[in-house]
TrEMBL record:
Name of the featured protein: Glucose dehydrogenase [acceptor]
InterPro entries: FAD/NAD-bd_sf (IPR036188), GMC_OxRdtase (IPR012132), GMC_OxRdtase_N (IPR000172), GMC_OxRtase_C (IPR007867)
UniProt keyword list: FAD, Flavoprotein
Pfam families in alphabetical order: GMC_oxred_C (PF05199), GMC_oxred_N (PF00732)
Family: Belongs to the GMC oxidoreductase family.
PROSITE patterns: GMC_OXRED_1, GMC_OXRED_2
Sequence positions that bind FAD: 84, 223
Cofactor: FAD
Domain of life according to the entry: Eukaryota
GO molecular function: flavin adenine dinucleotide binding; oxidoreductase activity, acting on CH-OH group of donors
Domain Glucose-methanol-choline oxidoreductase N-terminal: 82-105, 263-277
Length: 558
């Protein structure tokens, strides 16, 4: 790669970068180079029952937040993020969720022309190959024929329908959350194909990688700097280092643009190392300032915690003997079917409203995610680690704050490109976020766990307090707040750190065409561009952003 010249260099092959590199290389005359710091997609990422298997491995950046009072028990929280071709789409829960139309209309209201829901819907549909006929039939919202397979899992255990029935007993209808109604319960759709993960690498890069001569993909290479001519402020290439042999460095050049798609935690890092960021931060790190911009501010996420747990015992538990686990695994290897082909109770989700949501409109601010757990010593609550999601006797509700009001920031420690950035999420700085957690926990403990369907099935609330909150009475608001503060979790929806906005917005790093303000031939395309985080998971929105950005870039250069 050293010394090579391409039309476009895409920095980071994650959810967004794979889409951008794929779409730009559709133009035969354009040479596209995709540089990814991580390695190739590993086969174990396929298995839906083993979603967390690659977390905290070499496929994960394993960021640590700064320890702060008030969340994560006063310690660091680990923020997982994909360091692999496919990025977050390799580590993620595969949930396909676009978010409320109002979230995108807000982007437009903020002055981002072309980003209202009606504008972005065609780009969601462009990628989509919806394989569930009942969903696909709603052609206002869904499409078939795109590169990204979206479908439900065909394997559902006995608790999946039970959980949906419980929500329905309380009046929450079974809805298509990507089809115009969010409030309700849903059997989620996933970015998967017939029981195997469909990452953006698999959907957008693999089919073309060795076929398009104009697309070059290089892994295990970390971009350490975007090269910018200081007088004209024009990006002309990148500097990189080998991940394995960091002293091996090189440069590659562009005829047209550098597109930074390194994710919301690394794109600001790359920009700052390149001289784009807050003047005071860059100066104290000894970096020459090319452009003084508020890079790294506006860090947004969806905070959640280990919430109320349901005891799923007796006939409802799904634990099997070792012999059966091996049989299920063999079945999966043979034909991608059986319990390993699905993530257990995580297939069910629901949107409800906290005290802050407008009861009159369909704009919920709480979403439940329902991961399962295997507790093998029920007196101590000891958890069986690395158990596949399909093997469980507990379901825990993640009471997720989907319209979070607290905003954090990310910055550099110094100019060493290999040092992890400083991450301060500021969870619960706005106390309303903690109240949303309380409302979400109360709903499960007081309403959902008392439904007839759950009681008839022998599924009950686990009223054993978690150790760090055992000094408080279980089920009180103080107890739930304690869970929020001490058992804090992230949904890994980091975004907003290179926010787009109109000229009038002093916080905007990018214009609505995603060009870095004041710098030519440089764009950011990934979760960092999001001005205000919507009320959904972020993979589908990021893929939409990348589809739209690719068209903008094509329009600009064709
Ligand atoms: C554990 C987890 C679970 C999640 N679950 C869901 C879910 O179920 N549904 C959902 O919709 N969303 C989910 N998300 C969120 C979603 O996957 C992310 O928002 C999305 O993948 C972000 O895409 P991105 O392109 O912005 O960044 P990424 O996908 O993180 O891509 C950035 C890429 O750039 C590379 N990179 C970084 N720095 C450099 C550099 N200097 N040089 C070269 N390459 C670099 C990285 O290695 C990475 O591959 C989850 C995320 C995680 C981590």
């Amino acid at each position: 790669v050293d010394g090579e010249r391409h039309d476009f260099i895409v920095v980071g092959g994650g959810s967004a970068g794979c889409v951008v590199a794929s779409r730009l290389s559709e133009i035969n005359d354009w040479k596209v180079l995709l540089l990814e710091a991580g390695g190739e997609e590993p086969p174990q990422a396929d298995v839906p029952a083993f979603i967390p298997l690659n977390w905290e491995t070499r496929f994960d950046w394993q960021y640590q937040t700064e320890p702060e009072d008030g969340y994560c028990g006063g310690k660091s929280c680990t923020w997982n993020a994909g360091k692999v071709l496919g990025g977050g789409s390799i580590l993620n829960g595969m949930i396909y969720n676009r978010g409320n139309a109002r979230c995108y209309d807000k982007w437009k209201e903020l002055g981002n022309d072309g980003w209202g829901f009606e504008d972005v819907l065609p780009y969601f549909k462009k990628s989509e190959n919806n394989r569930d006929p009942s969903r696909a039939a709603n052609t206002n919202y869904h499409a078939v024929g795109g590169l990204l397979n979206v479908q439900r899992f065909s394997y559902q255990d006995k608790n999946v329908q039970l959980l949906m029935d419980a929500f329905q007993e309380l009046g929450y209808k079974d809805v298509d959350i990507n089809g115009g109604t969010q409030t309700g319960t849903t059997l989620l759709q996933f970015t998967q194909k017939d029981g195997r993960r469909m990452s953006t690498n698999r959907a957008f890069i693999a089919p073309f990688r060795n076929k398009r001569k104009n697309l070059k993909v290089v892994t295990n290479v970390r971009v350490t700097k975007v090269l910018i001519e200081p007088n004209s402020k024009t990006a002309y290439g990148v500097e990189y280092a080998s991940e394995r042999h960091r002293h091996v460095t090189g440069k590659a050049y562009v005829n047209k643009e550098v597109i930074v798609s390194s994710g919301a935690l690394k794109s600001p890092h790359v920009l700052m190392l390149s001289g784009i960021g807050p003047r005071s931060t860059l100066s104290s790190a000894g970096i020459d300032v090319i452009m003084d911009l508020p890079v790294g501010k506006n860090l947004q996420d969806h905070v959640t915690c280990v919430g109320p747990q349901l005891k799923v015992e007796g006939k409802q538990q799904t634990l099997s003997s070792n012999q059966n686990i091996i049989r299920h695994f063999r079945e999966y290897v043979r034909n991608h079917k059986g319990p390993f082909s699905a993530p257990g109770s995580l297939q069910v989700s629901a949107y409800i409203k906290s005290r802050y949501a407008d009861p009159a409109i369909d704009f919920p601010d709480i979403q439940y995610f329902l991961p399962s757990q295997a507790v093998f010593n029920t007196s101590t609550g000891q958890i069986r680690l690395n158990t596949p999601f399909c093997e469980y006797n507990r379901i825990y509700f993640q009471p997720s704050v989907m319209l979070e009001k607290s905003i954090g920031y990310i910055t550099i420690r110094n100019k060493d490109p290999f040092l992890q950035p400083v991450i301060v999420p500021n969870y619960f700085k706005n106390i309303e976020d903690l109240n949303v957690i309380i409302d979400a926990c109360n709903f499960v403990a007081k309403n959902l766990s008392n439904t007839k369907v759950l009681k008839d099935a022998g599924v009950y609330l686990d009223t054993r307090p978690l150790p760090d909150c055992a000094h408080l009475e279980f089920g009180t608001d103080d107890y739930w707040a304690c869970l929020g503060r001490n058992y804090t979790e992230t949904l890994h929806h980091f975004s907003g750190t290179c926010k787009m906005g109109p000229d009038s917005d002093p916080e905007a790093v990018l214009d609505p065409q995603l060009r870095v303000r004041g710098v030519k031939h440089l764009r950011v395309v990934d979760a960092s561009i999001i001005p205000t985080l919507g009320n959904s998971n972020t993979n589908a929105p990021v893929i939409m952003i990348a589809e739209k950005a690719s068209d903008m870039i094509k329009e600009a250069w064709q």
